[in-house]
Every structure is written in C-alpha cells, then in structure tokens.
Amino acid sequence: MKHTAITDDLYEYLLAHGHNADPVLAELARVTREKVGDWSIMQIAPEQGTLMEILVRVSGARTAVEVGTFTGYSAICIARGLPPDGTLLCCDVSEEWTAIARDYFAKAGVASKIRLEIAPALDTLRGLPADASIDFAFVDADKESYEDYYEELLRRLRPNGLIVFDNVLWGGSIVDTSNRSADTVALRRLNERIVHDDRVQAVMLSISDGLTLVRRK
Q1: pTM: predicted TM-score of the whole model, two decimal places
Q2: CA 167, CA 209: separation in Å to the nearest integer?
Q3: Is the alpha carbon torsion for 149, 153, 159, 164 positive or negative?
Q4: What is the pLDDT of residues 21-34, one digit of tens each?
Q5: What is the rounded distance in angstroms from the CA atom of residue 130 to the CA atom of residue 115?
Q6: Which of 53, 100, 106, 214 could form a disulfide with 77 if both were Cys (CB 3.0 to 4.6 A apart)?
Q7: Pairwise CA distance, residues 162 & 118, whole Å
Q8: pLDDT, tens only, 135-186
Q9: Do 183 and 170 form a contact (C-beta atoms < 8 A)?
Q10: Residue 78, SS3?
C-alpha cells in the first residue's frame, strides 16, 4: 500500500489538472481573504468544492442541507450540482459572513435554489419535519456539535443519500493522543461513531483537512 505525500508543487499540479478554476469562486475567495482575514482559513479548498458538485450531480440530489455556510463557497458548489428546481437549506449564525455569501449566490446564479437560515443549526434541523427527505448534506461548522448534526441529518437522509463531514483529520491532531482539546475530542467521537454505525457505509478521504463521506444504507 502506497501513499503519496502532497508537496506544495504536487498540490499545484493537482489543482491545475482538475476543473477547479472558476472566476466567481476565485473572486469570492479573494474577497473572503480581504474581508475576514485569518478566518478565511475556514473556506473549503477548490478541489473539495469541485468534488462536492460532482457528488451532488451524480447522486441525483434534489434536496440538500449545509451546516456552516461562512461566505458561501461550498454552498455555491452544492447549489450548482442541483437541478433547476433543487433546494439547498443553508444553516449559519453569522449575518456578517453570510452577507458576503448572499452577494455571491446572486453572482453565481444560484440564489433561487438557496434558503439561508440565520439561527443555531441544531434548532433549524430539529425544526424540519420528521419525514423530511434529504439527499445530500455537508457539515462544516462547530466541531463539538458534529455528532448531533449527524443524528439529525441521518434520520432525515434518504437511503443512498450522502452526508459529507469536513475537517475530520483536524490538521493531524486527530491522531495526537496528547491533544485533548474539545474540538479534537469531538471529532474523534464522531469518527468512532461513524465507523461502528451499521446504518451507514463510509469512507474517509485525505482531501484538504480530511473528508468523510457517509452513505445511508
């Protein structure tokens, strides 16, 4: 078994040889860096966005949920993968950051597909009908609530629907046993929960800061 370490040069090659360049998303990434400074690290990587759009398209998803929208990069990628009558529910608590997102939803031509709820995501998810059918979900928010998001989404996820979790490797801290921070411990709990959950099939990918794809059986 061989694992290729991703150097800076190799990463640039990886980006150049996928369809990861988009003028609207590139502008959004630049504006995010300018307006939120160091917090821009929370924005997903370009190849991650491309992967999610592909996943949404090939899965035939029509209804999607995003937990943690930030300035809108990932939401645009998901919404682009949905059909014209598809819907994406975005959950976030920041009016400031999502104001940027709203502008770029319009620039990307996907605003009509997106409903943005400014409220604690758990309140929004628990307020969904118990029989709601979600096709695709992306979670990139407060790590201590990941397990709760998992359960609320999974119970509403259709068979063969997907949940994608971001940051599951947490900068490598996930395997540092001396790291007992609340976020790291919460991510370890989620990872263990998923791997022992016979309701789902899952794979963890070393893309960006780690992605776990969860398919409901």
Answers
A1: 0.96
A2: 5
A3: negative
A4: 999 999 999 999 99
A5: 19
A6: 53
A7: 24
A8: 999 999 999 999 999 999 999 999 999 999 999 999 999 999 999 999 999 9
A9: yes
A10: helix
